[in-house]
Each structure stands twice: as structure tokens, then as C-alpha cells.
Amino acid sequence: MLLVAALACPFALAAEPARAPAPDADSGASSQVILGSYGRVEASTDLAGGAGDPITITAHPGRLEEQPYAELDLGWRMKTASGAHFLALVTPALSGDLFHYTGTFDASLAIRNLYAQADDFGVPGLGVWAGSRMYRGDDVYLLDFWPLDNLNTLGGGAFWTHGGLDVAAHVGFNRLSADDWQYQSIADITPGSVGSSSVTYLDRQRTIVSAKASYAVPLGSLHLRPRLYGELHNLPAGVRQIDYGVTEQTPKTEDLPAEHGYRVGGELSLYGWARDSYVNVFYRHATGIAAIGELTVPTTGFALDGSVNHAAEDLGALAFNQEAGPFSVAAGAYLRAWRDADANVVDPDDGWEWVGSVRPGWYPTRYVALQAEFSRENAFPAGLDPRTNVMERPTVTRLSFLPGVQLGKGTFARPNIHLRYTLAVVNQDELNRLDPNDARRAAWTGVGPLVSHEVGIGAEWWIDSQGYR
Fold this sequence. Notes:
Strand content: over 45%
Shape: globular
CATH class: Mainly Beta
Order of helices and strands: HEEEHEEEEEEEEEEEEEHEEEEEEHE
Distance between the termini: 31 Å
Number of helices: 4
Largest sheet: 18 strands, antiparallel, barrel
Helix content: under 10%
CATH architecture: Beta Barrel
Radius of gyration: 25 Å
Number of domains: 1
């Protein structure tokens, strides 16, 4: 029923005109209903009777390898006669396998945004917000990830914009339910009864504080914009139940140490020489739980005290796009090194990786797009692979051709409907790491790389989206 309501809601909003302001509201106020969407979907085949199921080896592979996903922005924006702005936004999102493909009437539904915001309410450029939201900055489009600020948070924040200066701060919380790591509910027998009740045994919230600042420096028709960013993460200690003893009824427990960490970094951007043209360079350093992500529960790589406080990650990234009449070229790349919290320096859980991707495009007419993409993924684990007992160096190289039609010229013109052919070369090191029963190994002779072919038809769009472009 929730899914039906989410999909029906935009039609109800579109059919109902914006209501008049309340009697005590500013006279002359105007309001606007927000209806937007982001989505991607593709059907593909490996030309051998199976689905196009690409092999990926890095944390952020190319965008072309991603699964179907859609967001629907539903909201309301108001501007008062005095110049204050108010916004309320709800973004349900759908992901996972599609009914028309699996025959299973099911979907994964999440709420990606649920917050309200107000700005320019007396102090020009000052704003506040509260709720649950995607809180992020610039992305690497071809790899579909945000190298610097990319939080999924429940909390609130404030921001101030003045000229080319932008500053913002926020505090948020989470309590991940997986693996009884932050939250554990147990069944407790009710005295004098044969029934039981649910009792919260472990309850520890992660607190995340972030701050960022940027300043756009005009250089003639160009702008140079440096940005600084930082996060602090803290998770208190706790105790969880793990099992009952063999002969006694007293449950065994496990002490969970306090966790902490930080992420700091910066971005340097140059833009303004042409429409949708820019170059962004990123760097970040993270430690502890900030290095494993705000939505990740660690399962390996713990220190002797049971914490991940000594984990670390360093990442540098590049995002680029150039538009020039009927031509464009986009690029994205990152280099990432990571270390888990254990003391083992020869460990396949540690290492480094890099990904690079470039997509040139030619637009012979207003609606025709002829694009190609070349990408390469390399991983360098720091220890022996547990399956092969060899220091493997997996590599995947891809060449894709993307003829299609889209609304306008350029890398980011959307909606886009395209055909895709991908030639992928997977080296022997990566194939050695796959399970022998993995269907993707069927065409491999056991010597040398695997060359695979994929053909697909897909679409991507953002239509008045509040979170993309």
C-alpha cells in the first residue's frame, strides 16, 4: 500500500492546485508544487544465453554497470512577500529486481529525503533545515559517487551564502540495525506469563558532525572554487548478547568498544568557460568508522580491542566535462588506498585500487547522441588471495558504444534512451578469484583473460530532480 501511495501521490499533487496562504501568512506569497524524478533502467544479455552481469572489482565501478534505480521528488516550495523561502521535500526511491523481469511482485522502497528547509528569513543568505536527507556535494558522474561530502543523515543543519562564500554545518545520527552492532532487541520472558516481550538490550547511536566552506573566485569569465570539508564520527561503547551458555541460562555477552573517526579533505574546481564544462579535483583522508562509511557495519578487520579505530583511507579523484558545440568529452577517475584496523600488514583486506573512465560524444542532430566509453579497473590487495594463495592483481577493461536519442546535446542532456554494446576483458587474476561454480566463468578456458560481450538497451533521466544535476 505504501508503494501504491508513493506512486499515486504525484498525480494527486498535479491535480490539486496550490492552496492559498493561511490568513496570517505574508500577503503576496507564492507557492509551487515540486514534482521531479531521477531514474535508470536497462535490459541486457551476455550473448551466451545469460543476463549481462558484469564483473566489478573496485568500490566504485562505472555507472554503466549499475542496477535499476528510481527516485521521485515530491514537495512544496514557498516564497513570501518579504523574501523568505520555505521548502518541504519527500523522496521515495525504488531499487532491486523488476517485476516484469523476475515475476516477483516486490520492490525495495526507501525514503531518501524527508526534510524541511527555510532560508532568507530575516538574514540574507542564512538558512536552516531539519529531517532526513541525502547531504552531499559534487560527484564523479561516470563513476556515480561523491568523493568528498556524501552523507545519509537524520538531523539538522545551517548554511550561509554571501557573494562567492558558502559555509554550512550539520549534526546527524544513525542507529544501524544490522548485525546487532548498534542496536539489539531481544525477547524477554514476562514474569508470571508464558509469553515474552521485546526488550532493547543494545542502543548506541552514531553521532556525525560535519562542516564545509567554499569560495568562488572570479577569474574573468572563469571561476576558481576551493572547498574544505570535515566530519567527526563518534559511537559510544556498548554490550550485546551473543549466545546462551551450554549448561547455564545466563546469556553470554560481548563488550563493544567505543568507536570514533574523522574525514577531512578538499576540492578545487574550475568552471565557466563553456556550458556544463568543469574540472573538479578531490582529496580526502579518513580514519576509524569514518573510513568505512556511515551506513556500513564492519564484519572483519578489527583490532585486538574489537574496534576499527585504526582503519584508514586515502582517496584522490578527478571529474571533468567539456562541451564544445556538437562534441563533448567527460572523464572520471580515482585512486584509493585503504587499511583495516588489524595489525596485519600482509592482508588481502588492505591495499589500493584505481578506476579511470572517459566518454567522448558526438551529437550530429539536436536529439541524436553517439557516445563511447573506455574504462579500466585495477585492484592491488596487500596479501595472498585466500582462494588461490597467490598475490593476485585483478583487472577489468571495458569499451562501450552508446548510440541513442536524448533531449538536447551534451553529456548531461536527459532523458536519454540508448543501445549499449560492451566489450569487456577480465584478466586471469580476477578469474582465479571467482568461485569455480560462478556462471560468469563458463566461457573461460582456464588460460589467459576472458573476453565477454554484452548488449543492452537502457534509459536514464532526471526531470526537475532535486538531487541530480
